[in-house]
DNA sequence: CCGTATCCCGCGAGATACTG
DNA sequence: CAGTATCTCGCGGGATACGG
């Protein structure tokens, strides 16, 4: 794809240049050491429990996982459901908004397969 | 796109789960406050001079711009060419590897248009 | 089991001044 | 013009211990 094709497809409205990169806010939302890996694991298996995520993202700490999940929830990419059983059970799943990131992941993966050895 | 379609298209090799998210290393490469905006500006106009980039990314400092450009160059997303004139002229341009990120930007923009008000 | 509450530390980024 | 050289500061994330 050339930039001209890109511009034509996306529309010029959000392509004003001068620092108004339309991509930046989205990537900001995905920034942080763990967010992408969490979303990725939730793509593979959904829903997942807190402890399950913690196990799969092995060196992650409680604090980091909690914070990342909270931010993802605030951005409506992930949904938290708490079941008041004993012992407590909490499940995290992707929202539609979160699942719609799959084409983005796909594009990135394609690029990675071409350029990452 | 469902995850099953995703898996089929990308191939299961890199989809091992257990923390091996294929997307993460790519986004790591794009991380930093300014890298994406630099790439984006270079999509719009290429090549650009140091001072030109600095003007367009207004509140950026010399240090930040220099560091970001160095890292982008190390990752072979951007090429630096120096002309030993007086006064000095340096031009930055996207490499093919960098230009090939456009489909990624496109996917992200599509998502953004759907979900960012 | 699923977190919160602290404390701590390093690193990315800002500010400012200076150079080939 | 296109950077480099320092210094500083804030905050994201790690470690550990405790609470509902």
From TrEMBL, chains A, B:
Keyword Transcription: yes
Keywords for the protein's UniProt record, in alphabetical order: DNA-binding, Transcription, Transcription regulation
Domain HTH hxlR-type: 21-117
GO molecular function: DNA binding
Annotated transmembrane regions: none
InterPro entries, per the entry: HTH_HxlR, WH-like_DNA-bd_sf, WH_DNA-bd_sf
Taxonomy, superkingdom: Bacteria
PROSITE patterns: HTH_HXLR
Annotated protein name in UniProt: HTH-type transcriptional activator hxlR
């Amino acid at each position: 794809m050339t930039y001209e094709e890109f511009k034509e497809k996306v529309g010029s409205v959000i392509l004003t240049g001068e620092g108004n990169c339309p991509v930046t806010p989205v990537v900001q939302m995905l920034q942080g050491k763990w967010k992408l890996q969490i979303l990725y694991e939730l793509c593979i298996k959904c829903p997942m429990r807190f402890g399950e995520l913690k196990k799969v993202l092995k060196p992650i700490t409680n604090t980091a996982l909690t914070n990342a999940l909270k931010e993802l929830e605030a951005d409506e990419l992930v949904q938290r459901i708490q079941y008041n059983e004993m012992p407590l059970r909490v499940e995290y799943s992707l929202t539609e908004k979160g699942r719609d990131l799959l084409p983005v992941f796909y594009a990135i993966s394609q690029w990675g397969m071409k350029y990452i050895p």
